[in-house]
Amino acid sequence: MAHPPTLDARHQLVVKLYELFRQRGYEGVSIGDISDATGLGRSSLYHHFPGGKEAMAEAVIAFTRDALEAKVLAPLRASGDSLARIDTMLAAVTDLYASGSVPCVLAALLSTNADGPLAQGAAQILVDWTAELAAAVEQLGVPPEDARRRARAALALVQGALVMTRALRDPVAFHDAIEAARQTLEQ
After folding, report:
1. Domains (ranges, CATH) in the chain?
2. 10 Å Cβ neighbour count for 60?
């Protein structure tokens, strides 16, 4: 009988799943691919994730939420100058996506069923990110509706740049989008 994974072993498994889904998307990864990448047989994978691939993707969404919370959202909530907090968040985004050279796992998971739980979880992360970013912009004296508009526009720039940078293999699009997002947020 297999033993439940330790927290560290489960974390390592989720990190591998994160990379698989980020690189290939939900539909592009089979249980066989996951088995090959993790070294676990199908029965072990289902033991750890009784809900199958969807449960694995849900674990990836939770992992993504935690990473974004720590690296992207927390700086927006920190005390201090709002412009500095926005700049810190943009630097974290640049680091998180390796200047646009790695895809966004949210986009990869959103390419599946738009009404499914995976899409809902990914969408909620974007909703929360928009709200935190808008709150930081409001602290610059921007009216709430304009702050939300700017936050949505900035995130759209970043997400679009991730697609362009990956397709064109040119990080300039990402760097230009980060600068445009900064200007949109700080104007």
Report:
1. 7-186 (1.10.357.10)
2. 27
Q: What is the rounded CA–CA span in Å between residue 65 and residue 73?
A: 10
**Residue 171, phi then psi, degrees to nearest 5:** -70, -10
Rounded distance, CA 105 to CA 56, Å?
13
pLDDT at 3 over 60: no
Quick check: 76 and 132 in contact, CB under 8 A?
A: yes
Q: CA 103 to CA 165: how far, in whole Å?
A: 9
Q: Report pLDDT digits (tens) over 108-142.
A: 777 665 666 677 888 889 999 999 999 999 999 99
* Rounded Cα gap, residues 37 and 171, in angstroms: 28
Tell me what pLDDT residue 1 has: 40
Contacting residues for 31 by C-beta, under 8 A, at least 6 apart: 42, 45, 52, 53
Q: Which helix (H) or strand (E) holds 20?
A: helix 7-24
List, in sequence order, every beta strand (DSSP E) within the chain.
none
For the purposes of burial, counting CB atoms within 10 Å of the CB of 80, is it exposed (0-12), middle (13-18) or buried (19 or more)? Answer: exposed
Are the beta carbons of 105 and 22 closer than 8 angstroms?
Answer: yes
User: Does the predicted model carry a pTM greater than 0.90?
Assistant: no
- Angstrom distance (rounded) from CA 47 to CA 5: 10
Render pLDDT for 63-95 as a digit per residue (tens, 0 to 9): 999 999 999 999 999 999 999 999 999 999 999
